[in-house]
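Deviations from the work plan: none for this task. Representative record:
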Amino acid sequence: MSLSRYSFSQIFNMLILPAIFDTLWMLVISGVISVALGFVIGVIMTLTEKGGLCENLFINRVLDLLVNVIRSFPFIILMISIIPFTRLIVGSSIGDTAALVPLTVACTPFMARIFQNSFKEVDPALIEAAQSWGASKSQIVFKVMLKESVPSIISGLCLAIINLLGCTAMAGAVGAGGLGAIALTYGYQNFNETIMYSIVVILILMVAFIQYLGDLLYRKMK
Amino acid sequence: MIEIKNLGKTWPDGTRVLENINLTIQDGEIYALVGRSGAGKSTLLRCINGLTDYQAGSLKVDGLEIKSLKDFEIRQLRRRIGMIFQQFSLLERETVYKNIALPMKCWKYPDSEIDAKVHALLELVGLSDKADAKPRNLSGGQKQRVAIARALIMDPKILLCDEATSALDPKTTHSILELLMEINKKIGITIVIVTHQMEVVRKACEEACILENGVISAQGSVREIFIKQPASLLRLLGEERAKLPSSGHNIQIAHLLNHKEEGKLLGQLAADFNQAFPIVSGKIRDFRNDMLGIFVINIEDEYLEPVTRWLDDRNIDWLELSAANNINETEAD
C-alpha cells in the first residue's frame, strides 16, 4: 500500500490521530487499573513487612517474590508468555483490549513498588504518633501514610506512566493499535520515515507533557 | 493513677529491656523517668499506652491492666492518654489546624466540636495566629506546642512526653516546660516525662525514678533524690562526687535558698558554735519552685551530735556522707 498520494495532514488524520487516541486509551485504562491494584499490593506489602502494622512475613515474601518475578520479564516476552491468561480474561489475544491485560500485569508490580517505597519514606514516628491517639490501621494508612507520601507517590507514578507509555508502543508488535503499531507497520516495515519520525516526535511530546504535569503536581503537593 | 508492679520486658531475641519495675504515679503528678539512652525509659513509657507489650508483672492505668486489653480497648484507652515526641511527629503536609484536629477526626467527632476545641487549644499553646501555617514554617518550640495541642485534644487524663524537649534549645525547653506545668496546674492532667536532661527533671517534676540498664536504681521525690545524691544520679550527671576528707564527719546539708535569710544558714551555724566548719563541697540548684543549696561541711567528732541536733531543730535535711562511700560505689558499678 502506498501512501504517497496522501498529504501529511491526511495521513495524520487517518492514521496518526486515531493511533494517539488508541495509545491514550490503553495508557489510561491500564494505568488506572494498575494504580488501583498496585496501591492495594503496596499497602499489603508495607503492612505485612517486618515490624509493620500487621506483620505477616509469609504474605510479604510471596508478594515480594511475585513482584520481582513479573518485573524481571522484558515486557515483550511477558506479553507473549501470558497470552493464555489474556485469552481467558478478554477472550482474545489480539487488539487494544487484549493489550490491556499484559500492560496491567506488567505495570502493577511497578506501581506496587512505588507505593511501597513511598510508604517506607513515611517517618515511623508519625505512625506511632497516630497509634498513640488510637487511630485504626485503615486510618493510619489513609490519613497518615498516604497523606504524607503524596508527593513521592506522584513522582513515582509519573515515572511508571512514562514506562507504561513505552510498553503500549511495544504492544503494537502483537496486534494492539496505537502509535507503536503505526510506527512499526509504516515506519519499520514500509520505510516511511515521515510517519515514523512524526510518531517519535509525538511520543517525545507526550513524555515531556507527562513529566511536566508530574513535576507541577509534585511542587503543588509538596 | 498508674500502678506498675514487678514489670519486666524482654525483646523477642531474649535481651532484657526492663526488669522488676515498681512505681506508682498519682493523678495530677508530674513524674520523671530519667536515664541514659538505652536505659529502657522510652520503652517503659510505651508500656503505659500499650505501644509496646511487656511479659512480666502488671501495669494498671486507672485499674485497667494494659496487658489484658483487646485491640479496640487499647485504642479506647489511648484516647485518654496523649503523647508527645522528641521529633514532634507532625504531618508535614498538613496545616497546624488539621494536625491538631486529626485525632478527633479519627474518632469522628462532629466538625463544630472539633473546631471549637482546636481554637481553644491553639489559644492555650499560644499559636492562635498559626492555624493555617504548615509545620515546616514553624520553629522547633512551636512544633512541639502544636504536638502538645494535638495530644490534648481528646481531653486526656495522662500526657506522656518522650524526650519532648531533647531537640530544643535551653530557652525553648524552658518555655515548653512552663507550658506543661501550666497545663498540669490548669487541668490537673498527669504528666509522665521521659528525659535524659536533669534540668528538665529539676524544673518541672515532683517525683522521679532513675532507670539504669532496665532497672530502677533510685526513686522518690525529685528533691529527695537530689539531696541524697545516689550514685546513679551522679553517674547520670556525669559528675564525680567531690573527694571528701577521710577524717571527721562529712555532713551534707540541703536547704532552701529562696530568701536572702536562708542563705545565712551556714554562717548562723558557725556563729552559734563559734566555730567555722570547712565547706568541702557545694552547689546551688534551682528546682520546680525553689532554689536549693546542697553543701557538705566537715566537722570533728565532738561537734557531730550538737550540730546534727541544731540541724534537726531547724528541720534541715542532712545526711552523713562517708569518704569511703565514694570508693564502694565505684566498685559496685
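Chain B has a mean pLDDT of 89.
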